[in-house]
Amino acid sequence: MTFLFDDPAFDYQALRTAGYADYGGAQLGEVVAVASRIPDGDTEAWRRAWTALAERVHRLGAAARGDGRTVDARAALLRAHNYYRTAEFFQRDDPLDPEALRLMRLSRETFADAAELMDRPPEFVRIPYEDTSLPGYLYRAADDGTGSPRPLVIHHGGIDSTLEEGWFFVAAAALARGYDCLCFEGPGQGSVLRDQGLVFRPDWERVVTPVVDYALDLPGVDPDRVVLMGTSLGGLLAVRAAAFEHRLAGCVAHDAVWQLGDVVALPPFVLEWVEQGCDDFADPVMWGIAAQQTFTRWLLRQALWTFGAATPSRLLRTLPAFGLSEVIGQVRCPVLVLDAEEDLFFAGLEHAKKVYTGLNAPKTLHVFTADEGGGAHCHSGAMHLFHDRLFSWLDRTLGGERPMAA
Predict the structure, then answer these.
(1) Is 232 an active-site residue?
(2) Is the bond preceding residue 213 a cis peptide, omega within 30 degrees?
(3) Active site residue: 36, 107, 191, 232, which one?
(4) Per-residue confidence at 191, pLDDT binned at 50, 70, 90?
(5) Is residue 199 within 8 Å of 193, Cβ to Cβ?
(6) Maximum Cα–Cα distance for the chain, whole Å?
(7) In terms of pLDDT, which residue wins out, 263 or 230?
(8) Is the pTM above the cut of 0.90?
(9) How many C-beta atoms lie closer than 10 Å to residue 130's C-beta?
(10) Domains plus CATH for the chain?
(11) Antiparallel, parallel or unpaired: β 221-231 and 250-254
């Protein structure tokens, strides 16, 4: 199924951006209009068009805020935030590119401005982690009047998501259902990568455990109803963490990933060269393969940066450490394993099936289909459908339906 572009990478990212309309992050007419001005595969045109849209909508938000029109200002600033993020997305040739840095800074700032105007503004927090800290947003649901502690969803993203996207992925839906939500970025993600230079690590439990420590010290959190959710690559990382962090009441793999090395589709002779250490032969071939498609070109550059690998060959030797086969039997909490029928990244690789089969803990598998509109990676374009499945599982798993927030 295609949305607005023939280029698969452009099409999915446009759908991802448009899908956040469910929670105020886009307006469909704006997305369709800007897409009509971008030639397939032209990443420079992509940056220019989305930047122009973001700046125009940002001005609308600033004007509304100046006039005291809170609802209009919040709506425009949320959209501008998302459009700035989208404009920056394919600018990964050089992580220090000034324009990429400017766009990401504007994306963060406009979200922060929008958050201040929310009915229940989130708290920006710093979570102690080793000799530094991790950024997070703490979203608190409205008091239900009972004084009872509330369940908490802890969320982190994947290889390209940002802290602010947690609002669209889960936080907005959590608040509407009486759940608190703590979104954070870890090594390899967002500002932790850009500002601190920390790259992905396979022992993700060493990232999650300090976050759980922090969460359990928060007032009003029910320590028996803390759930971890990871999106995209985060689906692998979250299940990995759950194998060691046994204070969790549940874990959500959104979507499930079994082994990162399985994602790499290369001719056998290239893999043999990498295994034999013939990087001088393998690297030019991998760069050549990547150059043929927007998606593979972006993915290689993004992975080199986020995993801290200097060359494609070194990256390939890093990826096998990111897998679940040796630890999945240690997971004790219930796990919701999600899959997407037409996943751009993992279609045909049966990652979700392998995760589900490997679990010894209570488990549920749900596959979103193209017919219901949820078949894209992480169900972009079907956020309400995804949240219906997610929170019905959480309500059952955590022991009863939560009262709706006021």
Answers:
(1) yes
(2) no
(3) 232
(4) very high
(5) yes
(6) 66
(7) 230
(8) yes
(9) 11
(10) 8-115 (1.20.1440.110), 122-259+322-398 (3.40.50.1820), 263-319 (no CATH)
(11) parallel
